[in-house]
Amino acid sequence: MPPKWTCVWLEWISAGWASLKIPSRWGGNFRGTVESSQNFRHMAARGELRNLCFVAPSRLLIAQDVLLDLASRPDSTFAHINSGDLKLNFAAGSGLQGLADRGLKIAKMAMRQLEHRDIDQALLKRELPDATLQLEAGQENLLARYLRYKKYGVNSIALNVTSNATQGLNGFMRIGKLQAEGLVIDTIQATITHGEEGLKFAATVENRKTENPNPFLATLHGHLLRAGAAADIAFQDANGRLGLRLGAQVEMEDGGTRLHLNADTAVVAYRNFSVNADNYLFVSNDRRVRANIKLLADDGTGLQIYSEGSDSLKNDITLTINRLNLGELANVLPYLPKVGGTLDGDFHIIEDQHNFAAVGAATAKNFSYEGTQIGTLGTELMYQPGENGQHIANGYLTLDGKEVAEIGGTYDPKGKGNFDGSFNIRSLPP
């Protein structure tokens, strides 16, 4: 028996979000057709949203009209949405219920594989639905206007993703000129490809020198492994100099997750670093950390993370920094203030089943900030647990070997919580 269809003309005018406890309101009117079979296996909606507006606390946002054409049948689903310069197209080779069932099945399979620390990409690929998603958007649509109201700006968005059991998951995304207050990024691009070796991903963040006060090029390339993932990151400054390059593998194994740095790719703050071949950082399922990572440059710049002791119930981690050039590091990391000097430091963390303690000391020789020479800055930080669950912290700041400030405090979490602290300035710089 063929499905029974009903046709309903809808006229909708204005609505608010008071029931959702959202202070802003939105409204408009809709005129179109909604069709459905009694068992909801056949559904369709066609129409137009007009006079859309979003009432925010400080302004009224008016959007372009939205044209809708949506349908779902047992063997197909499609959606076409147009509003201003926003165009969204989606098509799939099954109905909404079939898509939901397939998505749930893939999620369950992936969770089981993660639990067994064995990612079978071929098996997951065979379960992918036939689907295509395309999105193009510029600056004249409701999404762009709402982002501008939230003080974000996006010039353009392009997205194209395809999925099927033969070719796998493939797609790309491009965002043109993202702005967030003082942050400006000219281009963000990302791709995902499914080949014979499995799923690969790549991303590029680029600022062009002629258009941006913080020019750089950052790249990411990676792929899935049988028990984890591998990735390489790189950063080039405005002059094309390689300031950062690191490669790593993260893999699940019995009892936890292990990270290993590739020994032949390490560049930090423009310097080539040798990496110990047996380097690792292991985090167990019960949050115990073991590490042995040593990076050493020819000029003595070094970074070391290592664990001590053989007590499996205690974390005992040390981080050591030697002769790190802060000025070159600031050039590598965009949007950081312009600082200079040479940093040396040691930080030590001890944690067992009941207590956590940390102590650290660092010295920045010939430290400068935004072109102003300050001197040799030193700091000491200490944290230890107190009685009855209290937390005690102390810190000291020195300038050219003389103590200039001290801060300390105790936090008691009982009740609503209580903090008792002090801050003393011994002297001010001349």
List the main descriptive attributes of the protein structure presented here.
430 residues; mainly beta; 6-stranded antiparallel beta barrel; 4 helices; 28 strands; 61% strand; globular; disordered N terminus
Shape descriptor: globular
Secondary structure: helix percent: under 10%
Number of helices: 4
Total count of strands: 28
Q: Going across the biggest sheet, name each strand in turn.
A: 15-16-19-20-18-17
Give the terminus-to-terminus CA distance. Answer: 92 Å
Radius of gyration: 28 Å
Main β sheet profile: 6 strands, antiparallel, barrel
Query: On the 0-100 scale, what is the average pLDDT?
Result: 84
Q: What percentage of amino acids are in beta strands?
A: over 45%
Uncertain parts: 1-23
Give the helix/strand class: mainly beta
Quick structural gist:
Helices cover 10% and strands 61% of the residues.
Descriptive notes:
- The chain is mainly beta and 430 residues long.
- It contains 4 helices and 28 strands.
- The protein has helices at residues 96-115, 121-126, 142-149, 326-332, and strands at residues 5-16, 25-37, 43-55, 60-62, 66-73, 76-83, 86-92, 131-137, 152-164, 168-180, 183-195, 198-207, 216-224, 228-236, 242-253, 256-261, 267-268, 271-275, 280-284, 289-297, 302-307, 315-325, 339-351, 356-369, 372-385, 391-399, 402-412, 418-425.
- Strands 15-16-19-20-18-17 form a 6-stranded antiparallel β-barrel.
- The longest helix is centred in the first third of the chain and has 20 residues, at 96-115.
